[in-house]
Every structure is written in C-alpha cells, then in structure tokens.
Write a structure and sequence with these properties.
The complex is a heterodimer. Chain A contains 4 helices and no strands. By secondary structure, chain A is mainly alpha-helical. Classes of the chains: A mainly alpha, B mainly beta.
C-alpha cells in the first residue's frame, strides 16, 4: 500500500517537473496535486507504522520545484506574440505579388 | 404563370444570399487560440482575421487575411507563423485568388489558387522547401464545382448566410478546396444562445460544423461556432475537437465592423 503511493507520488512528481519546464507549465498543476496527495498519504502511513521514509522528502522537493516554476511562469510570462517581422514581411511580399497576379485576372461581375 | 412567379422568387432569394451585407473593408478581429488538456486551458497562439481593400487598374477587390502566430513562450518549442489570404469580389465574396503561406515548426508550405470561374478551373501552385532549404514548385490544374471556394472565403461566406431566416436544424453544405481536393463542410444551425465574451455579453447563433468523409473533426455536435445574432455576425467563440484533444478560439477585440 505504502509502496504503491510512493511509486505514484514519484511518477507524478517527476511528470510535474517535466511539464513545468515546457511551455505547457500550467498543465503541471494536475500532477502536482496528485504527487502532493500521494506524498501526504505516504507521510500518514509511515507515521502510523512509525517508520521513517526518505522518499517523502524527495516527492515534496520535486513538488515544490515544479510548483514554484509554474507560479513563476504564470506570473512573469505574459501571453504576448513573439516576433512577427518575418510574417509581416511575407504578408507584404504576398500582397505585392497578388496585385500583379490580379491585374491579369478578369473580374467577372456575374460570379 | 405560377412557375414563373416561383422561379422569380427563387432567383431573388438566391441573389439575396449571394450579396455581401456583412463584411466591410477595414475589419479586424483578434482571437486567442487555446488547447484544452484535462480541463486546463493553455493559450497557444493569436489568430487575426483582417479585411482590406485592394485596388487593381480594372477593379476593386476585398482582401481577406487570416494570420496565426504562436505566443512567445511557444516560439522556441514550436513556432507557427501562418498566413492565409483570399482576394474576393466585395459584392459576392467570390474568390479570385487564394494564398496559403505557412511556417509551422520548421515546415514550410505555400499554396496558391488562381480561379477561373467560367471554365470552372483552378490553377494551383504548391511550393515546398526541401532539406537543403531550396524550394520546388508543383503546378496543377484542378476542376472545381460551381460553388467551390477556399477556406478563408468560406469562413466569411458562413458569416454572410441569412441565419435569421433559418430554423433550428437547418443545414447547408459548403465545398472547400483544400490541398487540391474538394471537401464538403456541413454547417448546421442549432439555435440561439447568449454567451459572455471579452467584447460583452452577446446573443449568438450557435452553429455546428462537420466535414464529410473525414475524421479530422470528431463527433457530431462537438465542433461549434458562435456568431453574434446581429447584422455583423462576428464569430466570437469557436470550440473544436480534433483527434489529439480539443481547443477553442476566443475573441479579444473586434474593430472596424460594418454595421
């Protein structure tokens, strides 16, 4: 029983760190919650059995890392569009090119 | 006589449908596209839909432009800079030239359709980049139906439908030319619904979209489009379900509207 939660907590904690590093950082919340709850359960179980488990510390450490990364990203990373210079340039080029093409096309009002 | 009257009415209503009463030059709509994973939404890209007037020596055309650009945090991960444009007749929204210039995470593709509505032909040009960065072209002639349009002009044509005359359950087919293939998209009117958006609480027409013979859009009524129930019919909210999850498009701002 304890083993199951240790494994589950570890997997969720590692997963949350991985997601927190990627741009999908706010999706890390779900594995953070899972890891945190499993960590609490392991803590509760080991207290009941009066044994000391080191893994709890690791799980909580990973949870703290990913949580702080997620919060940091959420606060400081604004949702703004990156450089669109290239896009604007292509836009201009296409417009000029289109004008030339459209000169040759007969616009039929019937359609 | 009766049949004549009927034909006359049919002609008038057909003419009514073809007239553009919704889209003006100078319109600018901005959206945020987000991807949904297990209930949590992540903003991915900004989508813009703009219209402008383009003058040639013989005539004036309407340029419909759609661009998509990923947000900064995504650029190192998967950078998208897409440009879709269509040059249409401002009165009937019939397309004459379509261009698709996409750059998605290192993948580049350019498509161009030149329409010849009389001959029902489209001259298509496909341009791709190979591994060395050199481009190569592929020219093709594609036969099209009488009402076939491209993706961008179809989007605007949906807005130009007389939805106020439709009753819930009514549907209409649109033929779209995409990647040199004709695809049929069915638009079904579901009913009216009031939703709150960034530009205020709006009464909307709720439409369901589906593609015939394709699994790209999943489910029956899972791909929905909300158009404001006024004369502008601005698309304010889009919900879609694709094989890898579901996402949505939300409006941020709308300027330069016709009415």
């Amino acid at each position: 029983m304890k083993k199951l939660f240790i494994i589950l907590g570890f997997i969720a904690a590692i997963l949350s760190v991985i997601i927190a590093v990627t741009p999908l950082s706010n999706l890390a919340v779900a594995p953070i919650i899972v890891a945190f709850i499993s960590g609490l359960i392991v803590l509760f179980l080991s207290k009941k059995q009066k044994t000391k488990t080191k893994t709890i510390q690791y799980i909580f450490l990973l949870v703290i890392i990913s949580l702080s990364l997620t919060i940091y990203k959420g606060v400081f990373f604004t949702t703004e569009v990156g450089d669109t210079e290239q896009l604007e340039q292509r836009d201009e080029e296409n417009l000029e090119d289109s004008k030339e093409i459209l000169e040759d096309i007969d616009i039929d009002e019937g359609f | 006589m009766k049949s004549f009257v009927f034909a006359f009415i049919a002609l008038i209503s057909l003419n009514n449908f073809a007239q553009n009463k919704t889209i003006a030059a100078g319109e600018k709509l901005t959206y945020t596209a987000s991807y949904n994973m297990s209930g949590l939404l992540t903003d991915i890209a900004q989508v813009k839909m703009e219209t402008s007037e383009v003058k040639t020596t013989k005539s004036t055309l309407l340029r419909l432009k759609c661009t998509a650009a990923t947000y900064k945090k995504w650029d190192n991960f998967f950078k998208i800079r897409d440009l879709y444009e269509s040059y249409v007749n401002p009165k009937t929204l019939t397309p004459y030239l379509y261009k698709r210039d996409i750059s998605e995470g290192g993948y580049y593709k350019f498509m161009q359709y030149k329409y010849n509505h009389k001959a029902k032909l489209v001259k298509s040009l496909k341009r791709k980049k190979n591994k060395e960065g050199k481009t190569w072209d592929e020219n093709k002639n594609v036969k099209i139906g009488a009402s076939t349009k491209d993706l961008v002009s179809t989007l605007y044509s949906i807005r130009n439908m007389d939805i106020h005359k439709a009753s819930p359950g009514d549907q209409q087919n649109f033929t779209i030319l995409f990647d040199n293939k004709e695809t049929i998209v069915t638009v079904k009117y579901i009913g009216k619904e009031t939703i709150s958006t960034k530009i205020g609480s709006k009464e909307c027409y709720k439409l369901a979209l589906s593609i015939k013979g394709s699994d790209l859009l999943k489910g029956n009524n899972n791909n929905l489009l909300w158009l404001t129930a006024d004369t502008n019919k601005i698309p304010v909210y889009v919900k879609f379900k694709i094989p890898v999850g579901n996402g949505e498009l939300k409006i941020i701002s709308a300027t330069g509207l016709k009415n």
